[in-house]
UniProtKB/TrEMBL annotation:
This is 4Fe-4S dicluster domain-containing protein. It comes from Neobacillus notoginsengisoli. Residues 64-93, 214-243, 245-272 form the 4Fe-4S ferredoxin-type domain. Its cofactor is [4Fe-4S] cluster. One of its GO terms (molecular function) is metal ion binding. Ferredoxins are iron-sulfur proteins that transfer electrons in a wide variety of metabolic reactions. It comes from the Bacteria. InterPro entries: 4Fe4S_Fe-S-bd (IPR017896), 4Fe4S_Fe_S_CS (IPR017900), PSI_iron-sulfur_center (IPR050157). It holds the Pfam family Fer4_10.
Length: 327
């Protein structure tokens, strides 16, 4: 009787463990590239941020956008943090942290954005083992942004710090941990799910409130206010108000889609950290004397009636095309 009860309890325990195993493994889902990818949003996009961080060369580009080769992809997740628009979903890369020190092993060195992500979570030092070396260029970029915002830069340390506190688990979590010891997924059982599947946590615009990390510069001599970048910007950096164009660089994530689609080369994106404050530029709303369509142009007190043409009519006129509006 006692034996039977013991066996039944053991069977239920193993059944629960099996369910837990299935649940945990379901969390480690495949890396996927969503339709939010800039390459899918516009064929003019030149974004290739994910390519250098795919050690298996599993990502390629086509007319439809970015594509992932499932036969090559190992779901390492190193592409997840670098996407400027968080279009890559899946488990973020596994990193080891000991006493405020990020341990870099045989894996791609973190991007600037991933370094800033860990800095906001208390990491202050970087240690590379014998199979890896620090990317000084990336570290300098991250340090430059941090110091501009009044933070201390990262420190490169040669030795791994001693972990003084033993991790504590409840009795239940201890046995769960022990049951999965030796499996890769065991390392994630105590880690909150939002730390494992957190592509939105890598959104750089939300890491340092009150600061912009990119500056959007518009060349008013070249820009004809066609509004293409206004409509395509995934961060809604540009907004037209009454008599003003507001450029909120604090919302810019550096995706550079506006730069790629601008036919006048009138936009630049510069990486630098500074207190965020929208820039306001004077514009005015006119009516095209040719097609009678309202449009925006830069405010110019010297413009006289009948005023400039809209972009479409101006292009047609300069190319010598016949006006359908002429009598």
């Amino acid at each position: 009787m006692i034996k039977t009860g013991y066996n039944e309890g053991k069977r239920q325990e193993m059944s629960c463990m099996s369910i837990l195993t299935t649940w945990l493994e379901s969390l480690a889902y495949d890396v996927e590239i969503s339709s939010a990818c800039l390459r899918s949003q516009s064929p003019k996009s030149n974004c290739a941020e994910c390519l250098p961080y795919c050690p298996e060369n599993a990502i390629s580009f086509s007319k439809q956008g970015a594509e992932r080769d499932s036969s090559l992809c190992t779901n390492c997740g190193h592409c997840v943090p670098v996407c400027p628009v968080q279009a890559i979903t899946g488990r973020s890369p596994e990193r080891k942290i000991v006493n405020e020190t990020l341990l870099i092993e045989d894996s791609p060195f973190p991007s600037v954005k991933e370094l800033l992500y860990f800095y906001k979570r208390g990491v202050r030092n970087v240690n590379c083992d014998s199979t890896a070396s620090p990317d000084i260029h990336i570290l300098k970029e991250a340090d430059s942004l941090l110091t501009a915002m009044g933070y201390e830069p990262f420190t490169i340390v040669d030795s791994i710090p001693v972990y003084n506190e033993e991790p504590t688990f409840t009795r239940r979590s201890f046995f769960i941990k022990a049951a999965f010891e030796g499996k890769k997924i065991a390392a994630a059982t105590i880690t909150p799910a939002k730390w494992r599947f957190n592509q939105n946590q890598f959104e750089i615009t939300s890491m340092f409130p009150g600061y912009a990390v990119y500056e959007v510069i518009i060349d008013q001599e070249q820009c004809n206010l066609c509004e293409a970048c206004f409509k395509m910007c995934p961060q809604q950096v540009f907004s037209l108000k009454e008599g003003l164009l507001s450029v909120n660089s604090g919302s810019c994530n550096g995706c550079s889609l506006c730069v790629d689609i601008c036919g006048k080369d009138a936009i630049k994106i510069v990486q630098r950290a500074y207190p965020s404050q929208p820039m306001e530029l004077a514009v005015e709303r006119l009516t095209c004397p040719d097609c009678n369509t309202p449009f925006h142009t830069w405010k110019n007190p010297n413009v006289s009636s009948p005023g400039p043409l809209c972009n479409i009519c101006d292009t047609r006129s300069k190319n010598g095309y016949f006006s359908p509006y002429s009598v």
